[in-house]
Amino acid sequence: MELKKVSYPEPDEYYNKELISQSNAGVATICGTVFLKKGTRIPETGFSKHPFNEISIIIEGCIEMLSEEGHPIGKLEKGNAVYINAGEAQAGNVLEDTKIIYVLNQSQ
């Protein structure tokens, strides 16, 4: 068992804070937190894709998610959870200061 206190990056730090990273039975799992500043876009340009399946829980704030054409497709708000498949394009406009807890997993 590994126990960590949940903490978030400070507004002037890098936006992502990894809390736990483990590999077990052929599965890599990472858990962390994110702080996103109102008025920013994630990523700054284009779209991000990563090899992990992702579950994120919006603890506070709001992000307007974008389609690959750049059109709004919905909002992630406080209390929402979202699942994103590995390799799925993602980007968004941060409408409010936002805190997220995420879990990433990938078969090795």
UniProtKB/TrEMBL annotation:
It comes from the Bacteria. This is Cupin.
